[in-house]
Structures are given as C-alpha cells and as structure tokens.
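W.,

You were right to be curious about this one. When I first looked at the sequence I had no strong expectations either way, so I just let the prediction run and decided to look at it fresh. Below is the sequence, 312 residues in total, followed by the output.
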Amino acid sequence: MWLSEIMLQQTQVTTVIPYFERFTRQFPTLPALARADSDEVMALWSGLGYYARARNLLATARLCLEQHAGDLPDSPEALEALPGIGRSTANAIVAQAHDRRAVILDGNVKRVMARHAAIEGWPGQTAVARRLWQAAEERTPDIHARDYTQAIMDLGATLCRRSQPRCQDCPVASDCQGRIQAMLDQLPGKRPKRARPTQHTHMLLIRDSKQRVLLEKRPPSGIWGGLWCLPMSETPPAEPIARDTLPAMIHQFSHFSLHIQPLLIDQTAWNAPAWQISEADNQAWISLDEALSRGLPRPVQRLLQSLQPEET
C-alpha cells in the first residue's frame, strides 16, 4: 500500500505497474527494503523519475526498522513525520490499510472536488488548496473508509477525467456544480504559464583502454541525486583531446529543460590529471554491462546503450 502510494505520486498507473512488481519481488517486506543497498534501490527505480521518492522510500524503511519494529506507524501524524509522506499519502495509508476515516486529496481527487464543488483556481495556490481540502472533508463519510478512498480515486481516474469526462456514467453527476454551471472545461484551474528555462551541459562519455566508462555518483540531493552518471560540465574540455560529438539530447524536468551535448572521449589519447579518479570523488571505471545494471538517469542509459555492439 505504502509503496504504491509513493510510486503513484506524479506518475501514471500503467507506468508504475512493472516497477511495483520488480520492487515487491526484490523487497517483499519493509525490513528487506530497509536492509537494501542504496545502489540496488536506485537501479530498480531507474527510469521512473522523481528520484527523491526512491531516496525517501529507503530512508523511511530504515526509520521504520529502527523506530517502529519494522512496520509502518498507523497514525497520520506519525506517517507524515517520515520522509516523502505528505498529508494525503498518510491519510490514504490509514484509510486503506486500517479502514479508518481519513481525508485524501491526490491529483485525481482534486479534480473531482474542483468540479463537484465548482472551486475555481489552480490547486497549487494555498487558498484554492484550502477550499479543496474543505470540500474533501465534507464529502468523506464516517464509515467504509477503505471503500470510499479507493472509489473517489477511481472516480477521478476513470470518469472525471482531465479531458472528455464521462458525466453520463458518473454517480454524482446530478449535483455536480461544475457540470450544472457548464464549467467542466475550466476546472480545475490551470497553473499560470511562465517561461520554461533551459539549462545546458556537456556530458562526457570517457572510455579507457579496456573500453570501460567513467561514471560518478551524484550527490544525494539535486537532479538525479544518488544515481550514477557520466561526468558533466557546462563547458567542454579546453585542451585538445580525441573526441567525437554525439547528437544532442533534451531531457525534460518538471521545472526546466536540460540541453545535453554528449562528447565521446578516448581516455588513452587524453591523459588529463583531472581524470585521475579517487574513491572520495565517487568515481569509477566500470564495464559497459555493469554500468547498465546500475541506477542511471534515462539520458545516460540511452547513451551507454548506444555503445553496445549490434547483434548480428
């Protein structure tokens, strides 16, 4: 329950299912996850995005092992104190795991509440969010918490869809103020538009005489935190080196676009002291097969896959 709630944050069900299945096979219990190595967790998460969720998942499992006898606490307040668990996720766990009344407000439920109560404005604004929580509170019954919680999420996912809502099949269409006032297309309000910044980087794909690649582990916080990545630089190496310019790539983050210019570098023709690696730098020469088994950002994974010899 907890794992699925975390994975479904910002991500569609169809995308999550194979990741969820791999995770539960590898870590069938919370203590098993708590004892896992961070690289193992990040490798299983690789490609799902929003990597802070994976770091929080592992941190929460370890805290539960230390402080809650290897299980999740059963109160919303204690759950919210754990990394990566917010108000709605904590309440969803309480409602579905313990069948106790707890008000939820995930993305689908926000859409249902905005339409049913005709609440205008972008849900990310504090005043709008407050009204949505109030609407959710008023509509959450005192009984059948598990059933209602699942039903209201499914209602938003299957009937009260973002586009082309199926009002003819909706069980609460008769008193839906958004439908009655012909406002469905306007609800919920859209996020105010603003220019999407673009950042630029060079991604250095360096190979040594054994055809190993140089990878470095990203810091725990920031973009791709905790993943293994190719070295990156805002500017290309200044000294003359043997290199090939590969096709540029654009990777979309939630708040900006990253323009990536990959450079394929032959380390044997470039003995720059800057690449004398050390354990303290979290850098390592790694074979291509092993590199592809680690937790990698999607662009790095694609670049390394392009180096694999074609099957004949």
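Here's what jumped out at me. The domain at 2-186 is CATH 1.10.340.30 (Endonuclease III; domain 1). And, maybe more interesting for your project: The CA atoms of residues 51 and 224 lie 6 Å apart.

Coffee later to discuss?

I.
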